[in-house]
Specification:
Number of domains: 1
Number of strands: 0
Mean pLDDT: 88
Distance between the termini: 19 Å
Number of helices: 9
Oligomer: single chain
Order of helices and strands: HHHHHHHHH
Keywords: Membrane, Transmembrane, Transmembrane helix
Length: 188
């Protein structure tokens, strides 16, 4: 008996099949590990500012304290935004039903977050801050300070990602029947 998953496995390019098929769970776990490490940086920076009362320029997170150039590198921030966008896009085909909807929400928000970082990178590279500011400034940074803004962005991307992953690992029968990845549960 040939089912839809076997047919799709043949029709799907090898890399995509592996990432969204037999290696989907592994890729999601690795992606979540990287995302949580990034969260640790932002939460540590917030802790340094709001609990330890460090001046904002000295509150650089975990890696930024021993390596201050990291925190000021727009290339690093933009690079991470691109990596997030890439993996949200790459892993999306493995999702079905409700989980795909939530994953898409995270993807769309991250796309905007990436635009904001692209604007910051352009300003840093050209030496011409926008919006009459003295330093590179993103659009929403006009209303929220940078630390708070990036905590907000990471939160509004992370929440739909987590919802998507929970729904993906607990699919309805109809969603499970559409799944072609290693996350597919065995249903009675």
């Amino acid at each position: 008996m040939t089912d839809r998953r076997q047919v799709q496995a043949v029709d799907t390019p090898r890399l995509k099949w592996g990432v969204n098929g037999s290696h989907h769970r592994l890729m999601l776990n690795l992606f979540m590990l990287v995302t949580l490490a990034h969260w640790a940086e932002h939460l540590t920076q917030a802790w340094q500012i709001w609990v330890l009362n460090w001046p904002r320029p000295q509150a650089r997170g975990v890696l930024g304290v021993p390596f201050p150039a990291l925190i000021s590198s727009e290339w690093l921030h933009y690079g991470y935004a691109i990596v997030m966008l890439f993996f949200l896009f790459l892993l999306r085909p493995g999702f079905t039903g409700r989980s795909r909807t939530w994953w898409t929400v995270a993807l769309v928000i991250q796309f905007w977050h990436h635009i904001e970082h692209f604007l910051l990178l352009l300003q840093a590279q050209t030496g011409h801050p926008l919006f009459g500011q003295a330093v590179p400034t993103s659009i929403l940074q006009l209303v929220l300070p940078r630390v708070e803004l990036h905590l907000f962005y990471n939160t509004v991307v992370f929440i739909p990602m987590v919802i998507a992953m929970v729904l993906h690992l607990r699919p309805t029968r109809a969603e499970a029947d559409q799944m072609v990845c290693s996350c597919r549960p065995r249903m009675a």
